[in-house]
Automatic annotation (TrEMBL):
Lineage top rank: taxon: Eukaryota
Function comment: Key regulator of TP53BP1 required to stabilize TP53BP1 and regulate its recruitment to chromatin. In absence of DNA damage, interacts with the tandem Tudor-like domain of TP53BP1, masking the region that binds histone H4 dimethylated at 'Lys-20' (H4K20me2), thereby preventing TP53BP1 recruitment to chromatin and maintaining TP53BP1 localization to the nucleus.
Record note on quaternary structure: Homodimer. Interacts with TP53BP1 (via the Tudor-like domain); interaction is abolished following DNA damage and TP53BP1 phosphorylation by ATM. Interacts (via the cytoplasmic part) with SDC4. Interacts with TGFB1I1 and PXN.
GO molecular function: hydrolase activity; snoRNA binding
Any single Gene Ontology cellular-component annotation: nucleus
Sequence similarity: Belongs to the Nudix hydrolase family. TIRR subfamily.
Subcellular location field: Nucleus
SUPFAM superfamilies xref list: Nudix
Native source organism of the sequence: Myotis myotis
Keywords from the UniProt entry: Hydrolase, Nucleus, RNA-binding
Keyword Nucleus listed: yes
UniProt name for this protein: Tudor-interacting repair regulator protein
Amino acid sequence: MSAAVPELKQISRVEAMRLGPGWSHSCHAMLYAANPGQLFGRIPMRFSVLMQMRFDGLLGFPGGFVDRRFWSLEDGLNRVLGLGLGCLRLTEADYLSSHLTEGPHRVVAHLYARQLTLEQLHAVEISAVHSRDHGLEVLGLVRVPLYTQKDRVGGFPNFLSNAFISTAKYQLLFALKVLNMMPEEKLAEAVAAATEKQKKALEKLLPSSS
């Protein structure tokens, strides 16, 4: 039996807007494009999804916290995107989901998603290099490998073995599922393979008990 795809508690946008002042709001954007290419001429790429390496060494989506006292969700998100990408504005039509985070901090994480052409996606990558935060808070954009190689670890499972900020991994898995970019069983297989890889790596680091 394969592992289930992990999920956080989802709430509606209306419910999120009714939360009191004790809650913080984070807004992030998933930009993606259909990709007809093939890796090594035989492995379908299917889609290209952008994430970024942060200053703290963690992977996440472009975006950040929005102060609801001064900004709407979209205006706050676009302000942050302007610093890290430099060339894109999202609207309420791009809104995808809101999730409550686990832990001591009361944060509701909003995710926006927009499908671009592959050429537009590449233009975002080029623009990001020239943005204000490049090389500082943002260390570069990366494309998520949405395929699994024959060894059942290479590609997406290996990518999931990386360290992600807060809800980013959950949001990625959620978006891939609800946008029909990857079947849920394939997502679950990748999660299980990544978990097993991390478990084995930890066992190698820890001395065996006598």
